[in-house]
Specification:
Order of helices and strands: HHEHEHEHHEHEHEHHEHHHHHHH
Shape: globular
Number of helices: 17
Length: 470
């Protein structure tokens, strides 16, 4: 995938050359009617720290005021926060913005349910395109003028996806690690899928959908915790093409609290595995797309990246290597333990050149998280108790505010609230393996094992990311 992207950068075509792009121009006679009607949905749940950022950014989008509708979908359960969000909407409405504040009686279907309910309103049905921004996303004013023309002039396009830009990537070591992983996801996975197959998983936010594509795909479904990926796969099976624009970035926030990050990663690992279980045969039976594209979706997109990758990472680094310490007759070939992992690591790290010196920290961090992701993947595949667990990722808003909160609450934070027993146990086993290898081993694995065990134990005690008292 990285090779494809690199080749495209050097010799390929920009999105404007692959698809027709003509900006809208004002017409004296037709006026603003030449602009299509656009619905902007902003779903949120108890987003006290960031609700004003996303609503303000959505209301600041550059588009004729009579051709855009802002829809705030508030599922908040806190009456105080609900009142604050409603007042913010009323404030923008008083300035002439066409904004609707929508609430539901319950949270059925979570985000998918809110988006689905929002599209049922009469004013929403009149719109040709729908834009989605999560509560911490802040698009630039020209977002619509950079995306809508692609959809308007290319009837085969169903989705245009922008890239995320992280406002708090320098907040702590954990956010730097996340930035490295997500930069690879956008720069390589998203872009290669867009170039080769006109398909990639919708990221759930910072994207523009054609209403017709959503309708033909069957609308939003809440059968998994990755409703965005579910819709993207179904729309692709109907023949719709997707476009990723890497040069268009939307500000967003990375989780800086370990607990929030783990909840997010559980959803992002469990959901795709569960969706794979539900859709694999539907994908293979589909007759609207080529066998080559079906193979890409089933094997590369789902099986390799969403399932096998987590399991292989954890098994190799945290099971096989420690096992060889106690069974010296088993020797891992150099290509399996050094060359291939090194190449894969470098390809992942190259997406964020400024953090290249942190590559080793990124490796041990990802190895620790592979345990959590592997567990979540099995939960999704076998549909056990937590398969439909949906906990909204906690946002902190201003990074400096987090640091202030951290200083005030660190001393009061109970260690029992942050201990992760599974990570601690694995860390202790790895530490024991390192000691045994130091005493009796011949491959010098103890150097890696000591460092990896420290990473597991550190995370097991919750000393990673910011510590905010719940």
């Amino acid at each position: 995938m990285a090779i494809v992207v690199a080749f495209n950068k050097l010799f390929g075509k920009t999105p404007e050359k692959r698809y027709k792009f003509e900006p809208f121009e004002d017409d004296v006679e037709l006026g603003s009617s030449i602009y299509p009607l656009v619905l902007v949905q902003v779903p949120m749940f108890n987003e006290k720290e960031v609700y004003h950022l996303s609503i303000g950014a959505a209301c600041g989008l550059s588009w004729p005021s009579d051709r855009i509708v802002i829809q705030v979908l508030d599922d908040s359960t806190d009456p105080l926060i609900k009142g604050m969000v409603e007042m913010e909407c009323q404030s923008w409405a008083s300035k002439g913005i066409n904004i609707h504040y929508q609430v539901r009686e319950n949270r059925k279907g979570y985000k998918a349910g809110a988006l689905k309910q929002g599209l049922k309103h009469d004013y929403a049905k009149q719109c040709e395109y729908v834009v989605i921004f999560d509560a911490d996303f802040q698009p630039e004013p020209d977002f619509l003028t950079q995306t809508i023309p692609f959809l308007h002039h290319n009837r085969q396009l169903g989705l245009v996806q922008a890239r995320w830009k992280f406002v708090n990537s320098n907040d702590c070591l954990m956010t730097r690690m996340q930035e490295m992983s997500l930069d690879y996801h956008f720069k390589v996975e998203q872009e290669s899928g867009s170039i080769n197959y006109a398909f990639f998983g919708f990221n759930g936010t910072a994207g523009v959908w054609r209403m017709a594509a959503i309708d033909e795909a069957g609308g939003w479904k809440d059968r998994t915790t990755v409703e965005d990926m579910d819709l993207a796969v179904r729309a692709s099976l109907k023949g719709w093409k997707f476009l990723y624009i890497g040069s268009l970035m939307v500000k967003s926030e990375l989780p800086s609290v370990l607990k929030a990050y783990r909840y997010q990663q559980h959803r992002w690992s469990c959901g795709p595995a569960n969706l794979f279980r539900k859709m694999v045969f539907e994908i293979m039976r589909n007759k609207k797309v080529t066998w080559w594209k079906k193979l890409y979706v089933v094997y590369s997109f789902f099986f390799v990246r969403k399932i096998v990758a987590h399991f292989v990472t954890f098994t190799l680094y945290c099971v096989v290597i420690p096992a060889t310490v106690f069974i010296p007759e088993v020797m891992i070939p150099s290509w399996g333990i050094i060359y291939i992992p090194t190449i894969i690591t470098l390809l992942n790290a190259v997406g964020t050149p400024r953090s290249f010196y942190l590559v080793f920290f990124w490796i041990v961090f990802e190895n620790v998280m592979s345990l959590h992701r592997t567990k979540a993947t099995f939960i999704g595949l076998f549909e056990t108790q937590r398969v439909n667990e949906w906990i909204v990722t906690e946002k902190q808003g201003n990074a400096s505010k987090v640091k202030t909160t951290t200083q005030q609450s660190q001393s009061r934070f109970k260690i029992s609230e942050r201990i992760l027993m599974l990570e601690l146990c694995v860390g202790i086993v790895l530490f024991g393996s390192a000691c045994y290898d130091l005493a009796y081993g011949k491959y010098h694995y103890f150097i890696y094992l000591y460092l990896q065990s420290i990473a597991f134990i550190t995370m097991g005690f919750g000393y990673f990311g910011h510590q905010v008292n719940s």
